[in-house]
Structures are given as C-alpha cells and as structure tokens.
Amino acid sequence: MKKVLITGGAGFIGNHVVRLFIKKYPDYQVYNLDALTYAGNLENLKDVEQSENYHFLKGDINDSLYLDEFFSKHQFDGVIHLAAESHVDRSISDPLAFVKTNVFGTVNLLNAALKIWKGNLEDKLFYHVSTDEVYGSLGETGYFLETTSYDPQSPYSASKASSDHFVRAYQNTYKLPIVVSNCSNNYGPYQFPEKLLPLCINNIKHNKSLPIYGKGENIRDWLFVEDHARAIDQIFHQGKVGETYNIGGFNEWKNIDIVKLLCSIMDRKLGRETGTSEKLITYVTDRAGHDMRYAIDASKIKAELGWEPSLQFEEGLEKTVDWYLQNEDWLNNVTSGNYQDYYSEQYQN
Ligand code: NAD
Ligand code: DAU
Predict the structure, then answer these.
(1) Rounded mean pLDDT, 182-192
(2) CA gyration radius for the chain?
(3) Tens of pLDDT along 122-132?
(4) Above 70 in pLDDT, residue 349?
(5) What is the pLDDT of residues 131-144, one digit of tens each?
(6) Ligand 2 within 6 A of CB of 212
(7) What average pLDDT does the segment 20-36 reach?
(8) Does the beta carbon of 5 sit less than 6 angstroms from any atom of ligand 1?
(9) Statement: residue 68 has pLDDT above 60
(10) CB-ligand 2 contact for 302 (6 Å cutoff)
(11) Which end of the chain has the smaller Cβ count within 10 Å, N or C?
C-alpha cells in the first residue's frame, strides 16, 4: 500500500490526476491537499469523492506549521505537487501572490517532505509538476528540450522557474529524490474559464465577444488534459529520479486559428448558422510581454517511457465542447460572483 499526496487536486489538471490514481490504484491511499482558491472546486471530484481510497484535506501550502503536522501524521510515500497560481494574466496584476504560493509554498512542501523522509529516502519521491513557459518564448522554428536554458518572461513563469530550481537544489543539496515535468498548454473538462478555450466556449454560448490578444498570431502547443494525467502517472511510477521530462501534444496552433475552429464546432453543436460565432471575435490590447510561441519536443518521454498523446486534437476539442455544453450548472456556478468582477477588470467592459 502506498500513501500518495497530490497537491492542487481540486484544480483543473489535479482533478484528472486524482481521479486516475483513485481508479487505477485501489490499493493506494490518495490524499488531495488543496486550499480551494478561486481555481479549486470540489465539484470537480463529485463523481469520486466517496471512494474509500480518497481523502480530501483543505490546507494551504503557504502554512509551514500545518504542513509539518500534516506530513508527520500521514507519512506519505510520494508527493505529486500541482498546487499553484496558474494564470499568466493574474500574475501580471499580482506578481507577489505567485511568489508566495509557487515559490514559498513549494519550498514549504520540500521542507515538510525532507523532514519526514530524512534518513530513509529510499522509495520516496517528490514529483514537481511544471510548465513549458519556464523556457521562455520561441521564434518561428525550434523546440523546447529538457536541456533548453531557462528564460522565463512573465511573473508566472518566473515563479515556476524559481520553484523548479528549488526542487532540483533540494536533490543536489539534501539528496531528496525528485522528478520534474514541464508540460505545454492543457485543454479539456473542468478548466476554469479564465483560460482561452473555456473562456471562449462560455462567451460563444452567451453571444459575448471573444477577446483575442494582439493579432492572434501567438502559438501554443495543445494537449488533452487526460493525456497529461497519464504522463504524470507514468513519470511518477517509471520516471528516473533526478530527471526532467517534457510533455507536449506535437500540436501547435495559432490562437486565431484555434478560436476559429472552436467557433465552427460551437456553431454546429448549437445549431447556429456557420460563421455566426466567428463574428464575435474581437482583437483587444495584447498581453504585456506576451510570449510568441511555445513548442515542446516530447521525444524523451516517448522514447524512455513510451508515452504519447492518445487523442487527435479535433476529437479532443469536440469532447471538450460537449463536456462544457452538458455541464451547464458547473459553468454557471464558476462564472458567477467573483468571476464577473475579474472579467470586467481584465477586459475593461
Ligand atoms: P489551477 O489553477 O486550475 O489549479 C490550481 C489548484 O491549486 C487549485 O485547486 C487551487 O485551489 C490550488 N492552490 C492554489 N494555491 C494553493 C495553496 N497555497 N495551497 C494549496 N492549494 C493551492 O491550475 P492547473 O491548470 O490545474 O495547473 C496545475 C499545475 O500544472 C500548476 O503547477 C501549473 O503551473 C502546471 N501546469 C499547468 C498547465 C496548464 O495548461 N493548465 C500546463 C503545464 C503545467
Ligand atoms: O504552456 C503552459 C501554460 O499554459 C501553463 O503553464 C499555464 O498555467 C496555462 O495558463 C497556459 O498559459 P497560457 O498563457 O498559454 O494560457 P491562456 O489560456 O491564458 O492563453 C492561451 C493563449 O491565448 C495565449 O497566447 C494568450 C491568448 N489569450 C488568452 C486569453 C485568456 C487571448 O488571446 N485572449 C484571452 O482572453
């Protein structure tokens, strides 16, 4: 039996990882530690919350005393760390919130794990989930490799880069067994509608404008969230201690093209005339310091662990749209209240 701690399990990617672990490993005890910030939502785990091998704990990784007690009580065998502030635009308006959770919170977690595991590091693992944004921005060619130098450009990516450095420093200095993965843009069910795709799905539904930053020419490499969760599972169980694995979809899209594809899918699903949703596209002021292109070379994880994306993008996007249309209550709940204030502030309307 293993006791695994997953942080940020009530967030977008975390809930898919928690669900996969609960179902695939009935002999594990899965602990989900989450502060339930605006991005955390227990509704995301409603279908599995009664599982015998699942435990939810509301707690903040910024609270080191709480973490020490929590680790000493539960004696985890492994940690999969996803809890973070994750939205680039919010990092531009409030950088310190990102330093706090992403840097300070991660170091608190490293300290708590080290205290408990010290002297018996065998079969323990601290898995840090990170992003491709730490590598900076690409021009028209080239890919991010595990060996690419860090060059973060936003407060969000700078905070994630810093946390990655701390995780590796803890292995070098204290021999803490760690592994890191850096993944490209995820999409799929349960993503908070501050991010491009769910925001556009929600706006199309309500005939609201679709805010495209700058000229819409920035490129992202999209991966279905369940494929990311599968990669995390494989890295946790088969990854080599001390290694870094890049995870990506081999699937680059310009923002404007992906939004146009989404519009055509939504027109079809909503029974609207072709071209209706595209008319909602509105070019707005660019994101400050907007990274131009991300593209992951995921050949290492493919060669060493046999992982590759399972879904074609169009199929994944259809599945995603279906999920949002079928889960109207979820979408309405997360877009009421504070979301409206965030939206007016961010988009000034
Ligand atoms: P998210 O914002 O949807 O979820 C973050 C979760 O962390 C939420 O449940 C939130 O309540 C929790 N959290 C925040 N601060 C906390 C704190 N102080 N203590 C405890 N819990 C806290 O984020 P996501 O998109 O699911 O991303 C998860 C991780 O994956 C992040 O580390 C992110 O950097 C990384 N990542 C995300 C993507 C992506 O496309 N979304 C891609 C690559 C890597
Ligand atoms: O690459 C991995 C990263 O992907 C993760 O580490 C981050 O947590 C995640 O948020 C995501 O970052 P992005 O900034 O790439 O995602 P976002 O959905 O915010 O934006 C995608 C692209 O769309 C980006 O080029 C900015 C643009 N955009 C975004 C929004 C919200 C718009 O044009 N308009 C918008 O309203």
Answers:
(1) 98
(2) 20
(3) 999 999 999 99
(4) no
(5) 999 999 999 999 99
(6) yes
(7) 98
(8) no
(9) yes
(10) no
(11) N
Question: pLDDT (tens digit, 9 = 90+) per residue, 308-323?
Answer: 999 999 999 999 999 9
- Which pTM does this prediction carry? 0.99
What's the gap in Å between 85 CA and the centre of ligand 1? 6
Tell me the mean pLDDT in the region 86-109.
98
Instruction: Give dist(CA 114, CA 167) in Å, integer.
Output: 11
Domains in the chain, ordered, with CATH?
3-190+221-251+290-311 (3.40.50.720)
For residue 129 and ligand 1, the question of a CB distance below 6 A is answered with: yes
Q: What is the mean pLDDT of residues 285-308?
A: 98
Distance 156 CA to ligand 1 centre (A): 11
Q: Which two tokens stand for residue 83?
A: 């809890």
Would the pLDDT of 1 be above 90? no
The atom of ligand 1 lying closest to the CA of 13 is 26
Q: Which residues are catalytic?
A: 132-133, 156
